[in-house]
Design goal:
The complex is a heterodimer of chains A (285) and B (620). Chain A is mostly helical and 285 residues long. Chain A contains 11 helices and no strands. Chain A is elongated. The relative contact order of chain A is 0.16. The radius of gyration of chain B is 26 Å and the shape is globular. Classes of the chains: A mainly alpha (285), B alpha/beta (620). The interface between A and B is medium-sized, with 26 and 39 residues.
């Protein structure tokens, strides 16, 4: 299994990018050349070092207050990954649990969960997020709660339909006839069958969470204004976009990179984890 | 007049020196008004012939040598546009799965009309053409049929529509690829008879592809037996079926359970047909590794065709054609009839299962469906009881009721004298201790994410005993040995096993905690004849070893005759006849049992089939 993962370029490239991001986030203070809040009013709106007028001291240039863009990007990774991991896992746990319960039990329970998902999905997500944040108050943890509360339906709907497919297979009654309890059947027969899908959705959800967090910090509902986050950086640089486009382009590239890495990893893992895609090695002689 | 002839047709996978010949040096001819049967088990390459004619070989495959002449044109080297003009017009196909071959979103009229439009029938003439064509395949009320969708029709009706479409252009050649495999036996008899009648009327040449030797003997004039892409035997159908000469054909015939004659242990060839990947390792006769009479020379060089006269020819070494296969098999000693007075292991009293109809959000519930009505049966310890019936007869629902996967709407179920009708913990414990089930389709019944070792010891895992993993592995090895599987399969996954191996794993799992009654639902219906014989013999051997009782659910009467001492015939949810197998099959009392028996091609190649009684009682 491990060998197959290593053989997949998607997994290798995606995992490498995610690892780099995680490394950057963990050791941000050690890597960053400057304090992300440190202002140098002598050098405001500097272009990157390779551009005309750039300074080697600020490799990616500075913003309108003379803060090092590279350092702010590096510290912004912490916020992005924290939200991505916690929010995606939270939504996954809630959505998958409800999907397994609904799909396995069927009947009224399934009906109830299905209708709850329908009603939930009828709300425009951005409006729902704004309402939630107004109610909960702002802050990065509130953003995480909002993502979980809104996006569990993504997991629930997709995984429930996969559970229903698995439930049609004869190995589910066969497991019951072998003496497995309902809980054991769900955990040992149904859950492994949907795990590749859960992993895929989890990676996609991490990408979505990165974007949602950036959006919320852009409008000032996430982190405090003085914390370096990619959304905050775009919001700050927006007014000076004409003089210095780098302040907007670089955090956007960071967001792109993070989402790309998560999607690539998720897709690659789905392909390698699914034994249905395993080629038969031919019958034993 | 020859309509289609193949000369040295060879299809290879890949090109150049590394190419694998999938079909090797095939030669045959079909004349106008004649029927040629291509017979073989799955993997024999019989569908590949049809695809070569259609120019529709899978990617990587190509015709590397030989000709395929249709009406003076070589289909191998024909221009694609010309081939397209021929297909559907001069050459037509009757597919295997009638219900998937029709577009579910189009009515019969729309699909048939499309076909007629391609044939150049004017729009105004199409309705009358369609009505006449549907009438010719003996579909009742063709006018109302035209407005219906395929899913509103039964499989047999869909196949008749497709037959009508195939014959609409009066083609010179029709290729029927397993046209009745997806249908019930009684429908099969009618559909086969219909194809033959139309083919004779129009003087069409018919290439009939099938896995069923007995059916081919009935339908075809000439027959070609394929093994691993190689012609094993060809000749007049009666001669090949009546006196097969090739060891493979002889084994095939001897591994098919019969409806009449003395019960003999079936000949079961070891292993299975080689896959494409292993053909390269078989330079000589491809049957040699499984052949009961092969010697060292057979594997070295491809034997030539030996003409036996009358068009009957065999590809085999001259010395191997004689000698008995199957006839010298030991007679099957059915165990003395079990003392029926003993307390039954399973007892059903008036069991019914009704599925409620859908309830609209307004108004009343639609009427329900009686899947099983008022069935009573008992199985004594160690007894093998068969339940036969066609699809929709409720036999699988009965199995699920016995296993507690469904709850009966009425009646009582007793296992070992204890009432297990209610779905409670006590009933579950009783069932777990005494019953096990083998599901029909191992593909679906084996979790693809479990290794063989974890599959067969599933019951130990559930009971969490023994806790020690090495004890479980030991039990898994024991089970593999008992079911005739090599021990190196332990760490494999189901996707890496062959069909027969999967079914053995499926059986091994049910035997993990040795049951007193095994319920087997159509466990051989998806398997090739030679693999089926292996599984049937395995069940007999396992009975001798463990003494369990068996409730065998099957549509195949010959299989039931081979294994069981008593049989119940189910029709529309009810048991219409029951009794000892020998008596019921020799002297059926119920009209349904009689028609069921009549729809199976008899073993005696000279007997008339389908019987007059069946022809009269033709359903739509």
């Amino acid at each position: 299994m491990i060998a197959r993962m290593v053989a997949s370029p998607r997994v290798v490239l995606g995992a490498a990018l995610v690892l780099v991001l995680a490394f950057v986030a963990l050791f941000a203070p050690a890597i960053a050349p400057h304090d992300p809040a440190e202002q140098d009013l002598m050098f405001t709106l500097l272009p990157p070092a390779w551009d005309a007028g750039g300074e080697a001291m600020y490799p990616f240039g500075t913003d309108s207050l003379g803060r090092c863009l590279l350092s702010r990007l590096i510290h912004g990774t912490r916020v992005a990954l924290y939200v991505a991991v916690v929010a995606a896992f939270g939504a996954m746990l809630l959505g998958t649990a409800l999907a397994l319960i609904g799909g396995y039990c069927g009947g009224r329970i399934d009906w109830l969960i299905g209708r709850a998902v329908d009603v939930w999905m009828a709300f425009p997500p951005v409006v729902l997020a704004l309402i939630l944040l107004v109610g909960l108050g702002t802050g990065v943890n509130m953003v995480i709660i909002a993502i979980i509360v809104i996006d569990w339906t993504r997991f629930c709907r997709v995984i429930r339909s996969e559970v229903l497919v698995v439930m049609k297979r004869d190995y589910i009654p066969a497991a019951r006839l072998s003496g497995f309890s309902h809980v054991q059947v769900v955990l040992r027969e149904v859950l492994p069958a949907v795990t590749p899908l859960v992993v895929t959705l989890l990676s996609l959800e991490m990408g979505i969470a990165v974007i949602v967090e950036a959006t919320m910090s852009f409008v000032g509902l996430s982190v405090e204004a003085d914390v370096a986050a990619w959304g905050v950086m775009i919001a700050d640089a927006r007014q000076f976009m004409n003089q210095s486009p780098w302040g907007v382009v670089l955090p956007m590239l960071a967001i792109f990179l993070a989402v790309f890495a998560f999607n690539l990893l998720g897709d690659g893992l789905r392909r390698t984890l699914d034994p249905r895609l395993m080629v038969a090695r031919g019958p034993a002689s | 007049m020859t309509v289609l002839s193949a000369e040295g047709l060879t299809v290879t996978l890949g090109r150049g020196a590394g190419a694998i010949p999938v079909l090797r040096d095939l030669s045959f001819r079909v004349g106008a008004g004649r029927v040629l049967g291509l017979v073989g088990e799955s993997g024999a390459g019989k569908s590949m012939v049809g695809r070569a004619i259609a120019g529709n070989l899978p990617g990587g495959f190509g015709v590397s040598a030989g000709t395929l002449t249709f009406d003076g044109e070589d289909l191998v080297r024909i221009a694609p546009a010309r081939r397209l003009a021929l297909l559907g017009d001069r050459i037509c196909f009757i597919p295997q799965e009638p219900q998937t071959a029709l577009n579910p979103l189009m009515t019969v009229a729309a699909q048939f009309g499309e076909h007629l439009a391609r044939l150049g029938v004017a729009k105004a003439d199409r309705p009358s053409h369609m009505l006449a064509a549907l009438d010719s395949v003996r579909l009742r009320d063709p006018a109302s049929l035209l407005g219906r969708y395929p899913f509103q029709l039964s499989g047999g009706m869909c196949q008749r529509v497709l037959i009508a479409m195939a014959f609409a252009s009066r083609p010179a050649l029709i290729i029927a690829d397993e046209p009745t495999t997806a249908l019930d036996v009684s429908t099969q008899a009618h559909v086969v008879q219909l194809i033959r009648a139309l083919q004779a009327d129009h003087g069409t040449a018919l290439l009939f592809i099938t896995h069923d030797l007995r059916l081919a003997a009935r339908v075809c004039d000439e027959m070609l037996v394929l093994y691993a892409g190689e012609m094993a035997e060809r000749g007049p159908a009666r001669a090949v079926m009546g006196a097969p000469r090739h060891p493979y054909t002889r084994s095939l015939k001897a591994s098919n359970p019969t409806l009449t004659g003395p019960l003999r242990r079936l000949v079961s060839l070891p292993d299975q047909m080689p896959g494409i990947g292993s053909l390269r390792a078989l330079p000589g006769c491809r049957f040699a590794p499984r052949c009961p009479v092969a010697d060292a020379a057979c594997g070295a060089a491809v034997p030539g065709m030996i003409e036996l006269g009358g068009g009957h020819a065999v590809r085999c070494a001259p010395g191997c054609l004689a000698g008995a296969i199957g006839a010298d098999a030991p007679g099957l000693a059915m165990p003395a009839v079990v003392a029926r007075g003993a307390a039954p292991i399973l007892l059903l009293e008036g069991v019914s299962k009704q599925y409620p109809g859908r309830r609209a959000w307004y108004g009343r519930r639609a009427p329900g469906l009686d899947a099983v009505c008022d069935v009573s049966l008992d199985v004594a310890p160690g007894e093998f009881v068969g339940i036969v019936g066609e699809s929709g007869s409720g036999k699988s629902t009965l199995a699920r009721l016995v296993m507690g996967l469904e709850r009966p709407s009425a009646g009582r179920i007793l296992v070992d004298g204890r009432d297990v009708t209610a779905a409670n913990r006590g009933a579950r414990v009783v069932r777990l201790g005494a019953l096990q089930m083998v599901f029909q389709d191992p593909q679906s019944a084996l979790n693809p994410r479990r290794s063989v070792a974890r599959l067969v010891t599933q019951a130990l895992e559930a009971a969490d005993r023994p806790r020690d993993a090495s004890d479980r592995t030991a039990r898994a090895q024991e089970l593999l040995r008992e079911t005739g599987l090599p021990p190196d399969l332990l760490e494999r996954f189901p996707s890496q096993l062959s069909g027969g191996q999967k079914q053995r794993v499926n059986i091994a799992r049910a035997l993990c905690v040795t049951p007193r009654l095994l319920v087997a639902d159509e466990i051989v219906s998806g398997l090739d004849v030679s693999v089926q014989a292996q599984i049937l013999n395995l069940l007999l051997d396992l009975r001798a070893e463990f003494g369990f009782a068996l409730l065998l659910i099957s549509h195949d009467l010959a299989v039931v005759r081979y294994l069981c001492s008593r049989v119940l015939v189910m029709h529309l949810g009810a048991v219409v006849e029951s009794g000892e197998v020998a008596k019921v099959f020799a002297d059926p009392r119920h009209a349904y049992t009689r028609s069921l028996l009549a729809s199976i091609p008899p073993d005696d190649a000279a007997a008339a089939w389908p019987a007059a009684a069946l022809r009269a009682a033709e359903p739509v």
